[in-house]
Write a structure and sequence with these properties.
The complex is a heterodimer of chains A (434) and B (245). By secondary structure, chain A is an alpha+beta fold. Chain A has 12 helices and 22 strands. In chain A, strand 1 and strand 2 form a beta hairpin. In chain A, helix 9 runs antiparallel to helix 10. In chain B, 48% of the residues lie in helices and 17% in strands. Chain B is built from 9 helices and 9 strands. In chain B, strand 1, helix 1 and strand 2 form a beta-alpha-beta unit. The chains are: A alpha+beta (434), B alpha/beta (245). Chains A and B meet through strand 6 and helix 1 of A and helix 2 of B. Bound molecules: flavin-adenine dinucleotide and NADP nicotinamide-adenine-dinucleotide phosphate.
């Protein structure tokens, strides 16, 4: 039988896979024991965390079955997209408590990766707003769990990367908004120290993130812009906004219909882009923007990952503790620069303490996170091994949802062990040694 | 007042897509399925939450003819639109030898619809307006060796809908016959489907909505099937009987 190749957002790796897509959890015909399975949401992790020979797609589990507009509570099947939750919640004055950089992920994926947003330092990650889960476990039964019922299964499923079972449904809380718009500001910084100080200074803002130019050497190393935002009260909106303050995001997207040749994106075009980006934000100081532009600028272009070409790309996201962040990040950026491998789209975020209710392999911990995109080339893969050594030395770790290549040894030195049922394994968990 | 649409067979993939198409237009929905199980409850809640429309549910079985009169009399108010979309492909080989299976195919695709639509048509005729939509199939256009039990039931349904349209025309009640070709649903899961000739449930739903708006009589989805079936109907029987279809 023809088996199409399956790949996640980075396009690397691409593997032959059988996709089971049952209409609902009860209709899932479990394959014979000994066939490892992994849940797959919308494939927005970058690497192999939701890849396996046999995957269970949750995309047909797309019903919101409970929404309380007074208390801001939502219950839905695990394959509902955050975009769909927003379409229902925003007009009624509610928003996601944690918004990652794309709204096209499933609620199940948000729980399984315990995703973080631009507010982790205040709000923690997505799992903290989850009140209950139904998980299909290895014996084929559906187990409700929460902070009081089977709390161990509950905790381990948040940030557990699908290794505890298949999340079937999720009950979670939303946060109040008065309008769908944010007051935003840009704060340019000429180098890394300035950028980190800027992020730190903006800590009181609800949302903060920094973009940095990873292609600048020397004195301008780490120059960038801190972006901040907070939801706007209705009274502060212009008349047009006041008339419809809770307008949700538009349903339409532009699409990049084909892969660009690799030449289209290289360190020179990207260097030029970075310089223009820096200068534009140096001059404009922010303003009122819709949440779709503030949180999800990349969602405007469907399949934007195709600008990296058919060979695919890898994202490398790390966190370093506060004490070593500045020295560590500087050394990482210098190492990247010396390697000659271009890193695109570099983003810094502040992270608060590790979430209380999360698996030991959940990513966030107190410090500063840096995410970088690279073409998936042999030279880059060799560079990333060198960066791993630095991350280890500076006491940091990598985000599994972005990873496609770290070694088992490195993983075990940076995360505690996470024993889990053999029935659920991704290519990633197998690569990382169970 | 909010208009309403009754979906007979809301567990069907095509039926669900039709329910969303009407909900998007502000119609209240009445979902009728064999089992009011969790997926049906979630469907009802999701339609109401996403589209802010009233949604009700009821249980029915196309084969349980004795229960149909009470079911139809119990509809208050009578829906503006009724979509009869339940159906059963069945196991053709088994059905040729086992009349129980054959009977299920005939009931789910023909007699069950006749039983329900007779009752609904009478009420609509009395009221003087409304739309009845029957989802038949291109399989009903000419019997083929691989599925003529299903096909003949659909042929009966198609002829029934044509007569019903004629009978209700003067009463102001419109009847739409929908003839999908191949549609990617659980009915066809695992079958090899010819890509360009295959529709998604949403395509059928859009065609149904449009047909109701424009009072179209017979719609093929995708439209190319109208031509294909014309060619197939024109094949002389002495050629057709030799084909392996
Ligand atoms: C443009 C972009 C921006 C992003 N920004 C952020 C960000 O700001 N912060 C952040 O934290 N992440 C971010 N991500 C990563 C993304 O949010 C996570 O990888 C998320 O888990 C993807 O969800 P998904 O539904 O696509 O699931 P997949 O990518 O298919 O799966 C991700 C993981 O979740 C598991 N999983 C999915 N569904 C279930 C389920 N029902 N039950 C059990 N396990 C399940 C999978 O097994 C896998 O381990 C970004 C990704 C992109 C493409
Ligand atoms: N898919 C195609 O390629 C295709 C092509 C042409 C025409 N059609 C027609 O389109 C319609 C919808 O099909 P689909 O593809 O959406 O199929 P589907 O998803 O398999 O749905 C069929 C539904 O009919 C219900 N049903 C079967 N027998 C019933 C009975 N006796 N009483 C009540 N409900 C009954 C089933 O209920 P349960 O859930 O309880 O089993 C099921 O929900 C059918 O009439 C089909 O013949 C389909």
């Amino acid at each position: 039988m023809f088996e199409p190749r399956l790949t996640n957002w980075g396009g690397y790796p691409a593997v032959p896979a059988q996709v089971l897509a049952p209409a609902h959890a009860e209709a899932l015909a479990l394959p014979p024991p000994g066939t490892p399975l992994i849940a797959r949401g919308n494939g927005r992790c970058y690497g192999d965390a939701s890849l396996q020979r046999t995957v269970v797609s949750t995309l047909r589990w797309n019903k919101i079955f409970y929404f309380d507009p007074v208390l801001g509570r939502c219950g839905c099947e695990a394959g509902v997209l955050l975009a769909d939750v927003l379409a229902v919640a925003v007009p009624q004055g509610w928003f996601l408590p944690v918004a990652p950089g794309t709204k096209y992920i499933t609620v199940g994926g948000a729980v399984a990766a315990n995703v973080h947003g631009k507010n982790h330092h205040h709000a923690g990650a997505f799992g903290q707003y989850v009140d209950g889960l139904d998980v299909l476990t290895e014996d084929g039964t559906r187990q409700p769990c929460s902070r009081t019922v089977r709390p161990d299964l509950f905790r381990r499923s948040i940030g557990g990367m699908g290794l505890t079972g298949i999340i079937v449904s999720v009950h979670f809380r939303l946060c109040r908004i008065a309008s769908a718009y944010l007051h935003t500001a840009h704060h340019p910084a000429a180098n890394l120290a300035g950028l980190l100080a800027g992020l730190e200074a903006q800590r009181p803002e609800a949302y903060a993130v920094a973009w940095l130019d990873a292609l600048r050497p020397g004195r301008a190393l780490g120059r960038g812009i801190v972006h901040t935002g907070r939801f706007a009260p209705v009274a502060s909106l212009p008349p047009a906004g006041q008339a419809a303050p809770l307008r949700p995001h538009p349903g339409r997207q532009l699409s990049l219909p084909f892969y660009l040749p690799r030449l289209a994106l290289n360190r020179y075009t990207m260097g030029l882009y970075n310089a223009l980006y820096y200068r534009r934000h140096q001059r404009h100081s922010g303003g009122l923007v819709h949440y779709d532009d503030f949180f999800y600028p990349l969602d405007k272009l469907r399949h934007w990952n195709r600008i990296y070409g058919r060979q695919g790309f890898v994202q490398y996201q790390l966190v370093l503790p506060p004490a070593t962040a500045e020295t560590g990040l500087a050394e990482l950026l210098r190492t990247i620069h010396l390697s000659g491998c271009g890193a695109y789209l570099a983003v810094l975020k502040l992270l608060g303490p590790a979430d209380e209710w999360a698996a030991p392999i959940s990513f966030p911990m107190a410090g500063v996170s840096l995410a970088l995109d690279f073409h998936a080339t042999p030279a880059v893969l060799a560079l990333l091994d060198r960066l791993d050594a630095l991350v280890l030395r500076y006491g940091g770790r990598l985000y599994l949802a972005k990873d496609a290549r770290m070694s088992a040894d490195f993983f075990h030195r940076t995360y505690p062990a996470f024993p889990h049922p053999a029935a659920f394994q991704s290519l990633q968990s197998q690569r990382l040694g169970g | 007042m909010q208009k309403t649409c009754l979906i007979l067979g809301s567990g069907s993939d095509i039926g669900q897509a039709i329910a969303y198409a009407f909900a998007r237009q502000g119609y209240g929905l009445l979902l009728a399925a064999r089992a009011p199980d969790e997926p049906q409850q979630h469907l009802a809640a999701d339609l109401a939450i996403r589209h802010g429309v009233a949604v009700g549910s009821l249980a029915f079985d196309g084969e349980d003819y004795a229960a149909h009169p009470a079911l139809v009399q119990g509809l208050h108010p009578l829906p503006d639109v009724v979509v009869a979309v339940f159906g059963y492909l069945g196991d053709h080989a088994r059905a040729t030898a086992d009349f129980a299976e054959c009977g299920r195919i005939l009931a789910a695709n023909y007699t069950g619809h006749v039983s329900l639509l007779n009752l609904l048509a009478a009420r609509m005729q009395q009221r003087g307006h409304g739309t009845l939509v029957g989802v038949s199939s291109v399989a009903g256009e000419r019997g083929r060796q691989s599925n003529y039990l299903y096909g003949s039931a659909k042929a009966g349904f198609t002829a029934y809908l044509s007569g019903l349209r004629n009978a209700l025309f003067r009463a102001g009640v419109h009847v739409v016959t929908v003839k999908p070709g191949f549609v990617r649903t659980k009915m066809t899961a695992g079958l090899p489907l010819p890509g360009p000739l295959t529709a998604a449930p949403d395509d059928v739903a859009r065609a149904v909505w449009r047909a109701c708006q424009r009072r179209q009589n017979v719609v093929y989805v995708p439209g190319i099937w109208r031509g294909i079936m014309l060619a197939i109907r024109l094949l002389p029987e002495f050629v057709f009987k030799r084909l392996r279809l």
